[in-house]
Amino acid sequence: xxxxxxxxxxxxxxxxxxxxxxxxxxxxxxxxxxxxxxxxxxxxxxxxxxxxxxxxxxxxxxxxxxxxxxxxxxxxxxxxxxxxxxxxxxxxxxxxxxxxxxxxxxxxxxxxxxxxxxxxxxxxxxxxxxxxxxxxxxxxxxxxxxxxxxxxxxxxxxxxxxxxxxxxxxxxxxxxxxxxxxxxxxxxxxxxxxxxxxxxxxxxxxxxxxxxxxxxxxxxxxxxxxxxxxxxxxxxxxxxxxxxxxxxxxxxxxxxxxxxxxxxxxxxxxxxxxxxxxxxxxxxxxxxxxxxxxxxxxxxxxxxxxxxxxxxxxxxxxxxxxxxxxx
Length: 327
Prior knowledge:
Blueprint: E1 8-19, E2 29-45, E3 50-52, H1 59-69, E4 74-80, H2 90-102, H3 108-123, H4 130-137, E5 142-147, E6 153-157, E7 162-168, H5 180-188, H6 192-213, H7 218-233, H8 240-250, E8 255-261, E9 268-274, H9 278-284, E10 290-293
Helix pairs in contact: 1-2, 1-3, 2-3, 2-4, 3-4, 5-6, 6-7
């Protein structure tokens, strides 16, 4: 039950997925990071659920989470730096912010799973848990290595000398109107090209983590580029417009690498940029919208809590994250 009977405030960040695309629904490992764009929710008990926001559509999410948390109706005021459709998961930021305000006593894992169920209930889409885990448990200066099958996770240091750039491809789409569901079904069925992407992408996640932990920043760019080429050629979820922006970013000053991020067929592009090169990078991208981010704390992160309630830090090595293929 909700512990609150007075006004409350909750705040949660957006997230990026550094690497590990189209592997979560097969039980693979992913490497998201919370970023310093936040959604803040102020709430108070009310006769019925209501939500005030500059962005429409949030009320079904709030009511669904209220049902999950067995919370009394609340009137919510939302302000957000997480633009919808920007690729940094505005829905997870909203839900985790509400959970943090209503139930600060929850563990990060409990909050993330409640928010995942709420989004599934609100949308009818069987979303994964990566976005909610990153928004709830992300930590400044780190990425979050998450095994989508077991929900084991641990923190991975992220270097201060890198800036996370999120680029808007300008290609707007609803995944329901693209071959996304077909690609997912092909992957779940073990189609050879899709399988090759999944297996190579999981290997790239492990290599990316190893490079971060050994401070070999120079290796990250090649892994991002290889990830994009695999998404383009093996998973076939890119578009010519996205490819052109990604290749332009590869050649931009200070850019280590870039790749398509998210479901594909448009949407957002992730790039890693050397700190100090932000202005020349932005100039090189011309009129393409660029959002520059740093890592951030989620509301359920704590320097004193265990890195994972399900597994100690030494877990999630190269043997973890194997996909579940049909027999």
